[in-house]
Amino acid sequence: MSLKIIFTWWNKQTFGTFLKTLFTGKFVGKDKFGNKYYKNKNDQRWVVYSNNIEATKITSDWYMWMHHTIDKIPDKTIEKKYHWQKDHEENKTGTKQRHQPVKIKKDNIRKKYDTWK
After folding, report:
1. pTM as predicted
2. Quick one: which of 92, 99, 10 has its CA closest to 57?
3. Under 8 Å CB-to-CB from 114, ≥6 apart: which residues?
4. Count of Cβ atoms closer than 10 Å to residue 12 Cβ
């Protein structure tokens, strides 16, 4: 155990979560991002993130399991249900990979009407 766990909460898990996982946690599964999922005998469910704590790293199947929407543990081989579905990605807001809409210049805008003079 490193000192980062004791003094910081943004590195994988807090010290309290570490102790809870150590003493009462039962390992349930792991997703493709390396996040590990646990539960205890009271059916409390939690995740230990592989890197920095970011809630958007949880896929939709594991999210439903975490929030007791489904009880079945998600499969490791997740098939796409439709051809238009994309793979899950974490939220990229604030990074260089963020979404940037195409900028439209004023000269390229064509009005559908003539302004009244």
Report:
1. 0.69
2. 92
3. none
4. 20
What would the two tokens of residue 63 be? 């999210």
Structure tokens at 34: 């390396």
Angle at 66 (CA atoms; ends 72, 81), nearest 5 degrees: 55
Asked if pLDDT for residue 12 goes beyond 90, the answer is no
Interval 41-69: pLDDT, tens:
999 999 998 887 888 888 888 999 999 99
Tell which residue, 87, 78, 85, has the closest CA to residue 31: 78
Higher pLDDT, 85 or 43: 43
pLDDT-above-90 percentage for the chain: 26
